[in-house]
Amino acid sequence: MTELRKVPVEAAVREDGAAPALMLDVRHLPSFGFGHRSLMWWGTMCLMLIEGTVFAIAAMMYFYLRSLTARWPLNAAPPELLWGTANTVILLVSMWPNQLAKQAADRQQRARARLWLIVCLLFAVVFLVLRGFEFAALNVSWYTNAYGSVVWLLLGLHTTHLITDAIDTAVLGVLLFTGPFEGKRFVDVSENALYWYFVVLSWLPIYAVIYLAPRL
Asked: What is the C-alpha separation between 115 and 143, in angstroms, rounded?
């Protein structure tokens, strides 16, 4: 831990001639911190809490609408499993390079952090391409009925979060390659990895609602 030193401040000499006041010398303290020591970490945690609540409300809407009808899905076959399952596998595998990017950022290894960020970005791009096939395989349009609307809402919400994180990852990658570069960028990479975990893990219950629930 960096030592805090007390140094005299000449400007603090009192008019009555008393000894100079002592103040803490914080010039050698780090300008950023990881985990709960970072405001970015707290902001990310609050954001995940809010967005997780939105996902939960959308899932409750799905089951509420299902409870109002004897036949579910409404006038549509259950969505095809192929693309949704493929994307689930891709997301789970993407946690590996994401963890490596986080470890590199925590160790302040710029070269390794930007390498694994690019790998994470490639995973996100592949996922988004397959997500387009997912929408086509839902067998219902968003305006067809209540079932179509809530399914498109769930898939659309998750897609929005994925696009947001992909853009953030791309911006961080550019900054790590070209600058301007500051030490706090390592914190940004670390928190971006934390958010990616949220994107991945939040998808698992959404997958169950969209693809498994209609088959029960």
From this structure: 42
> Look-up: residue for tokens 């809407």?
61
Give the separation between CA 168 and CA 40, rounded to whole angstroms.
Answer: 14
Cα–chain center distance at 138: 25
Amino acid letter at 19? Answer: A
Q: Is it true that the peptide bond before 30 is cis, omega within 30 degrees of 0?
A: no
pLDDT tens for each residue of 170-181: 998 888 888 776
Q: What is the mean pLDDT of residues 151-160?
A: 95
Q: Rounded CA gap, 67 and 58, in Å? A: 14
120, 197 contact by CB (below 8 A): no
Task: List residues bridging with 10 in a β-sheet.
Answer: none
Query: Average model confidence (pLDDT) for the chain?
Result: 84
Q: How far apart are CA 81 and CA 60, in angstroms?
A: 22
pLDDT digits (tens, 9 = 90+) for 56-71: 999 999 999 999 988 8
Helix (H) or strand (E) run with residue 7 in it: strand 5-8
- CATH 1.20.120.80 describes domain 35-215: yes
**Domain locations in the chain as residue ranges:** 1-30, 35-215
For residue 75, which amino acid is it?
N
